[in-house]
Amino acid sequence: MKSLLKKFTEKYLIPIVQKKFFDHPGTKELFNNPEKLFYDQWGYAKTTKNYSNEEKMNIFLHFQYSEKAKVALSVASSYLGGHYLEFGSHDLYTLRNFLAAFDTGNLNSRFPNTKFYGFDIFGSYDSHENKKYFEKGMVYESKKKYFDDFTHQGDVIPLYNKVLKEFDVFNERTFLIKGFFEDTLKDFELDDKIGFACLDCNLTQSYEFVLSWIEDKITDGTYLYFDEYFDRGLVNKCIEKFRLRVLEKYQIKLFYVRSAASVGALFRCFKI
Ligand SMILES: C[S@@+](CC[C@H](N)C(=O)[O-])C[C@H]1O[C@@H](n2cnc3c(N)ncnc32)[C@H](O)[C@@H]1O
Q1: Is 79 close to ligand 1, i.e. is its CB under 6 Å away?
Q2: What one-character DSSP code corresponds to residue 46?
Q3: What's the whole-number average pLDDT of the chain?
């Protein structure tokens, strides 16, 4: 009798309860937005006492990723046109954020010529050809491990092109440019101003190089996002130097707009 009851429960009751649970709009909402676990109905925090480690981690991950998506939406809310340039695109999260924000803000009707560029080594680099960067005294002397950590999958361009095709938002105007910034930016020419430059490339050396490349290309209204602004002392210092430099050389002042999870920071350039 006992085993009959057990069989009946396993076969019929549990699936029904589970189905109800998974079909419930509240459950679906929580799966889509685990950060909601954190808030009570008025927006205060609920007790987290009985949450699992996984639930707590989901709250944090959702918060951090959604903050970056909000940066993209903030930029799209007041965009003045120009191209989107991203330095450090691996995983394509920030790139997809901006494609979707641009679309959501219906910016395409006003700026049909905006192009979206992602610069990165995209999962591989020729170690012979690029030996020069890692040699003693060279720019990435102690950073080989950093780059190698992004190469476990090998060249990800075919995969990412597929991802962008499935994402299907301005795919024909999105370009992934593979290689070290030092090589790919050498011959890169812009046919319009920079509307938004997103720097998510971790290393101070990479920031320094990109900032010196964009300093004479930013203009009135350009947005700049630095993903490590509040995170790393040296990156922060080099951005602060850049702010002083563009103010002195080009009379462009960077106004702070918002943070992303207290790590990244969005700025806007204005000619003064
Ligand atoms: C944190 S990941 C970018 C994540 C991406 N923005 C996203 O949200 O999915 C940083 C990337 O910057 C790239 N990177 C850093 N310095 C670089 C350089 N000098 N040249 C090319 N890529 C660089 C790394 O290879 C890595 O793929």
Answers
A1: no
A2: P
A3: 93
The mean pLDDT value for 115-133 works out to: 95
- Write the CATH number for 123: 3.40.50.150
With a 6 Å cutoff on the Cβ, whether 35 touches ligand 1 is no
Q: Which two tokens stand for residue 214?
A: 């964009």
Does residue 155 contact residue 124 with C-beta atoms inside 8 Å?
Answer: yes
Note whether residue 244 is domain-resident.
yes
Supply the Cα-derived Rg of the chain in whole angstroms. Answer: 23
Query: What whole-number distance in Å separates Cα of residue 141 and Cα of residue 159?
Result: 30
Mutate to test the pocket of ligand 1, among 86, 150, 151, 207 (most ligand atoms within 8 A of CB): 150
- Residue 55, domain member (yes or no): no
CA of 120 to the centre of ligand 1 (A): 5
Domain count, the chain: 2
Ligand 1 atom closest to residue 92's alpha carbon, by position in its atom list: 9
What mean pLDDT do residues 172-195 have? Answer: 97
Supply the residue whose CA is at minimum distance from atom 13 of ligand 1.
88
Q: 194 CB contacts (<8 Å, ≥6 apart)?
A: 82, 83, 85, 214, 217, 218, 219, 222
Question: Is residue 197, in this structure, part of any structural domain at all?
Answer: yes
pLDDT at 100: 98
**Is residue 59 domain-resident?**
no
Q: Structural domain of residue 121, as residue ranges?
A: 65-271
**3-class DSSP assignment, residue 49:** coil
Tell me if 205 CB under 6 Å of ligand 1.
no
**For residue 23, what pLDDT is reported?**
72
Q: Is 94 in the pocket of ligand 1 (CB under 6 A)?
A: yes
How confident is the model over 43-59, as pLDDT tens digits? 999 999 999 999 999 99
pTM equals 0.90
Work out the average pLDDT over 242-259: 98
Same domain, 23 and 105: no
The reply to whether ligand 1 has any atom less than 6 angstroms from the CB of 92 is yes
Q: Is 96 in the pocket of ligand 1 (CB under 6 A)?
A: no
